[in-house]
């Protein structure tokens, strides 16, 4: 490797701005990669970057089994669901075998946003209502309907009501023994608010990993209580599994790990390990009812190559025992973070489940004053040490750590050493 030519890099950045409108990134300088494998991304600077941020390559970047399956299918047949072909049925059969029993059909689309958008349409038809309940700071997608459901992006339409983040560390009921019940009362308030604005609940949509709300260890029983209240008011439950699903929380499904029953499951990111693939999963009677009103077809949704990719991802999760690894390596990650907290006072809280973790930084452990600025600096310092992490939460002082499920304790050790060094650098600044 040679040092990348700084003039060429500057030209690329300029081109990116002109051609793509300078897409969002959170580093002072965008990173430039040329290949990847497992938990590693390799830059044009010849450096290997450890990826704890990108939750799309669930089974590791560029997994050879997935790449081979895509290539093989692309050479043989790639068509859409207007025609009969075996692989879409095999894939749907395999997916529904993994879900709770009442979920037994699939609609294939191409992204998490599309899956959520479609779930909203189905809810509206099935309930005849429009009111929506989502979590404060949630993100559910980029389409017009899902943007409405993404308060972290700033919209607050009148047909949407919000539940406070049920955080055991920070928030009005943090640490109280009846936290689950107290936080769940937000659902009663949300239903009343909707009613006052002339809406009845059609659905509650929730990312059970609470990824954009700071990654929350939801109090036990909380989601079941909210579910019961929403159902009693006539609403359906949509589990947005784009972040929480496919083993991320140490079980196949996040909503199951968190004790909730869903009417619809929506999937995106990890399902194709980078190949664009989204799914809505639901009961066949619900789907039949919806199809009486709507003709459903997605050109690319469920195409033969996407199904081959999806199938291969499931092979790897099973063959490499990745859900067990998500639990053991995830536990090790959190244990190491807690140990680091003994010498790094900026660490206020360590959270997460399975291969999802978060650290909340505070300048004072008693007042819990958020170390938001320091968290931003930390991202940059970590990048200098070739470790990629993200941040989340309304106060922008929590880390979002979502490594691929192939992450091993040796990778955790590299991350912890880099974090320790970066925190020490911060404290002397
Ligand atoms: N739901 C959640 C919880 C997400 O995190 C995202 C993406 N960050 C989406 C939906 C939207 O998925 P996509 O970007 O594939 O449209």
UniProtKB/TrEMBL annotation:
<comment type="similarity">
    <text>Belongs to the class-III pyridoxal-phosphate-dependent aminotransferase family.</text>
</comment>
<keyword id="KW-0663">Pyridoxal phosphate</keyword>
<dbReference type="GO" id="GO:0008483">
    <property type="term" value="F:transaminase activity"/>
</dbReference>
<keyword id="KW-0808">Transferase</keyword>
<keyword id="KW-0032">Aminotransferase</keyword>
<protein>
    <submittedName>
        <fullName>Aminotransferase class III-fold pyridoxal phosphate-dependent enzyme</fullName>
    </submittedName>
</protein>
<dbReference type="GO" id="GO:0030170">
    <property type="term" value="F:pyridoxal phosphate binding"/>
</dbReference>
């Amino acid at each position: 490797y040679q040092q990348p030519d700084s003039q060429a890099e500057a030209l690329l950045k300029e081109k990116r701005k002109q051609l793509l409108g300078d897409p969002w990134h959170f580093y002072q300088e965008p990173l430039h990669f040329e290949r990847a494998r497992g938990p590693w991304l390799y830059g044009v600077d010849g450096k290997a970057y450890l990826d704890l941020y990108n939750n799309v390559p669930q089974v590791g970047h560029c997994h050879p089994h997935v790449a081979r399956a895509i290539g093989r299918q692309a050479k043989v047949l790639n068509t859409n669901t207007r025609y009969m072909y075996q692989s879409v049925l095999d894939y749907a059969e395999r997916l529904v075998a993994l879900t709770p029993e009442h979920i037994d059909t699939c609609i294939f689309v191409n992204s998490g946003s599309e899956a959520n958008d479609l779930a909203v349409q189905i809810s509206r038809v099935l309930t005849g209502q429009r009111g929506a309940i989502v979590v404060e700071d949630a993100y559910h997608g980029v389409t017009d309907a899902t943007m409405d459901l993404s308060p972290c992006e700033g919209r607050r339409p009148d047909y949407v009501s919000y539940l406070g983040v049920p955080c055991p560390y920070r928030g009005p009921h943090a640490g109280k023994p009846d936290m689950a019940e107290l936080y769940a009362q937000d659902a009663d308030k949300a239903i009343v608010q909707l009613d006052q604005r002339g809406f009845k609940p059609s659905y509650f949509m929730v990312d059970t990993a609470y990824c954009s709300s700071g990654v929350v260890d939801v109090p036990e029983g909380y989601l079941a209580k909210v579910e019961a209240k929403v159902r009693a008011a006539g609403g359906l439950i949509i589990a947005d599994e784009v972040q929480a699903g496919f083993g991320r929380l140490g079980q196949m499904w996040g909503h199951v790990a968190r004790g909730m029953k869903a009417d619809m499951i929506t999937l995106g990111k990890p399902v194709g390990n980078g190949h664009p693939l989204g799914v809505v999963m639901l009961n066949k009677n619900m789907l039949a009812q919806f199809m009486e009103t709507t003709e459903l077809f997605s050109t690319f949704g469920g195409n033969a190559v996407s199904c081959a990719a999806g199938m291969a991802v499931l092979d790897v999760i099973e063959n490499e025992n990745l859900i067990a690894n998500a639990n053991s390596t995830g536990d090790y990650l959190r244990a190491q973070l807690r140990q680091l907290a003994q010498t790094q006072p900026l660490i206020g809280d360590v959270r997460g489940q399975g291969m999802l973790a978060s650290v909340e930084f505070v300048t004072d452990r008693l007042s819990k004053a958020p170390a938001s600025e320091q968290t931003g600096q930390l991202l940059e310092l970590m990048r200098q040490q070739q470790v990629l992490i993200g941040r989340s939460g309304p106060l922008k002082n929590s880390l979002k750590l979502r490594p691929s499920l192939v992450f091993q304790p040796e990778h955790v050790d590299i991350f912890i050493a880099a974090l320790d060094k970066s925190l020490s650098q911060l404290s002397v600044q």
